[in-house]
């Protein structure tokens, strides 16, 4: 978003990139540099404190427990799940394996990768999202045709159902890996229930093929879907009858609901996690899932924002899935509040009509319950 940066920076300049505020300081003064060095030290001390929570459960003060999973792109990242106390992988983005290759990986190559991830996690669950190319994730050898609006185009489950050969090879590889651990399969970018039904039929075809080939696999692998389009939210009650779990992809859900391209700096301020419509969509989706007694996870960037984490607790989401390094922070927030007071908070924020009102209410609540410099060792174990 800093369009003029390269006109004011030269080789040899000192710059500070502040990822918390989204700002860049060019050639800082000695005092500014000293202030930031102190902030880095404070951040590392806080991180060290949070790591003390690695082996503790994510449970509120009144014993409401949540599951905390990690989002991964590559098999090499599995160690971080364990290092930060994750209970499994809530989103493995399989498309990055395709993106990293210059050719279409074979079924056996995919199987070896999925198996390594599964075995390294032991009995912890790993949710493999089927290939989600398109939008901002382009694989040249799979789709080199330009699209005027790729985020609304040939992506996610639409690609998979069109290229059934690629889809089936991936499903075969994932099912084969299921013989070595706790595997689940998730379909992305669902907009119509017909897509769910077609994907399930293809899974049945794949299982029949594997049986004929005498491959080992778990025939009870759970199937779930991403809720990331407004139509999926509207049809959540019907969708819940067809799958074993939901995972809400808040990144796309927000941009499709608010009609805001999150990569467009001119309107970035309009991309709001806590917009009243988003909170209502989350609430209705979670309620629809719970009526069918299926769990709901969230795997978008909302899981990395403390204010949004608090809202997700309030809305009774079952599972959080985030970058591994954020896991201790989510645990800290969960372990600092009671579920009862969170339910009271959500009743208040549902009455508000603007994002700013909601943010103020949650900020006040967070400041009162979750200190900025926590004494982790004094927390209930």
- Helices, by number, come to 16
Structural class: alpha/beta
Low-confidence stretches: none
Largest sheet: 8 strands, parallel, barrel
Fraction of helical residues? 40-55%
Query: Which of globular, elongated, flat, extended, rod-shaped describes the shape?
Result: globular
Write up this protein.
It contains 16 helices and 11 strands. With 381 residues, the protein is an alpha/beta fold. The chain is globular, with a radius of gyration of 22 Å. It has helices spanning 5-8, 30-50, 78-83, 95-99, 107-120, 157-162, 164-177, 193-212, 230-234, 236-239, 250-258, 276-291, 306-314, 327-334, 339-349, 355-369; strands spanning 15-18, 23-26, 58-59, 65-72, 89-93, 125-129, 182-187, 222-227, 245-248, 296-298, 319-322. It is 44% helix and 13% strand. It has an 8-stranded parallel barrel with strand order 4-5-6-7-8-9-10-11, surrounded by 5 helices. A two-stranded antiparallel sheet has the order 1-2. The longest helix has 21 residues, at 30-50.
Summarize the entry for a quick read.
Helix content is 44%, strand content 13%.
Secondary structure blueprint with pairings:
Blueprint: H1 5-8, E1 15-18, E2 23-26, H2 30-50, E3 58-59, E4 65-72, H3 78-83, E5 89-93, H4 95-99, H5 107-120, E6 125-129, H6 157-162, H7 164-177, E7 182-187, H8 193-212, E8 222-227, H9 230-234, H10 236-239, E9 245-248, H11 250-258, H12 276-291, E10 296-298, H13 306-314, E11 319-322, H14 327-334, H15 339-349, H16 355-369
Parallel strand pairs: 4-5, 4-11, 5-6, 6-7, 7-8, 8-9, 9-10, 10-11
Antiparallel strand pairs: 1-2, 3-4
């Amino acid at each position: 978003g800093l369009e003029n940066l390269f006109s004011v920076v030269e080789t040899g300049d000192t710059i500070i990139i502040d990822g918390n505020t989204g700002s860049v300081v060019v050639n800082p003064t000695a005092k500014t540099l000293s202030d930031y060095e102190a902030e880095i030290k404070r951040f590392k001390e806080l991180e060290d404190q949070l790591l003390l929570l690695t082996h503790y459960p994510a449970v509120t003060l009144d014993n409401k427990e949540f599951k905390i999973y990690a989002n991964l792109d590559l098999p090499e990242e599995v160690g971080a799940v364990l290092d930060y106390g994750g209970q499994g992988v809530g989103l493995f983005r399989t498309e990055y394996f395709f993106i990293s290759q210059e050719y279409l990986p074979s079924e056996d190559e995919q199987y070896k990768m999925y198996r390594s991830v599964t075995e390294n996690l032991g009995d912890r669950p790993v949710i493999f999202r089927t290939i989600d190319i398109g939008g901002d994730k382009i694989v040249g050898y799979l789709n080199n045709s330009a699209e005027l609006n790729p985020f609304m185009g040939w992506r996610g489950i639409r690609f998979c159902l069109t290229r059934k050969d690629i889809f089936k090879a991936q499903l075969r590889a994932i099912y084969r890996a299921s013989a070595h651990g706790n595997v689940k399969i998730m379909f992305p970018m669902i907009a119509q229930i017909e897509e769910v039904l077609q994907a399930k039929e293809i899974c049945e075809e794949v299982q029949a093929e594997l049986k004929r080939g005498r491959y080992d696999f778990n025939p009870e692998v759970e199937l779930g879907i991403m809720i990331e389009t407004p139509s999926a939210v509207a049809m959540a009650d019907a969708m819940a009858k067809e799958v074993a779990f939901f995972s809400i992809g808040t990144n796309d859900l927000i941009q499709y609901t608010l009609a805001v391209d999150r990569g467009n700096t001119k309107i970035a301020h309009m991309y709001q996690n806590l917009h009243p419509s988003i909170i209502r969509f989350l609430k209705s989706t979670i309620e629809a899932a719970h009526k069918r007694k299926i769990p709901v996870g969230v795997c978008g960037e909302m899981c990395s924002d403390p204010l949004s984490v608090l809202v997700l607790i309030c809305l009774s989401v079952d599972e959080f899935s985030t970058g591994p390094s954020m896991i201790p922070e989510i645990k800290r927030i969960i372990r600092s509040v009671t579920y009862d007071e969170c339910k009271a908070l959500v009743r208040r924020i549902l009455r508000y009509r603007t994002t700013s009102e909601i943010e103020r209410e949650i900020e006040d609540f967070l400041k009162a319950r979750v200190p900025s410099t926590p004494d982790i060792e004094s927390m209930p174990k």
